[in-house]
Specification:
It is built from 4 helices and 3 strands. It has about 100 residues and is α/β, with parallel strands linked by helices. It has one domain: Rossmann fold. Strands 1-2-3 form a 3-stranded parallel beta sheet, with helices on one face. Strand 2, helix 3 and strand 3 form a beta-alpha-beta unit. Pfam families: CoA_binding_2 (PF13380). This is CoA-binding domain-containing protein.
Amino acid sequence: MAPSIARYLRDDLGMEIIPVSLRAEDALGEKGYARLDEIPGQIEVVNCFVNSQKVGDIVDQAIEVGAKAIWMQLGVIDEAAAARAKDAGLEVVMDTCPKIEYPLL
């Protein structure tokens, strides 16, 4: 996750941030995981900071673990993945940034 956006979500909005990347890298002092199914507990929102060609796998993982929502960042667009998520009952936000959208709420 982009550090400035992750920091905003954690520090300004009070959200728990759990980094997920293929290398399972820690970020902002939080333990990193390689896959969503490695994270203990319920996942509310999966915020996707990957290119559009890779987001489908993350969406499928989010569906498998029972996440409640998927958020695809600016420029991340995959209509088929979004449809799969919606069909599975997830809320879907695509091609936008929470740091831009939350202040507008």
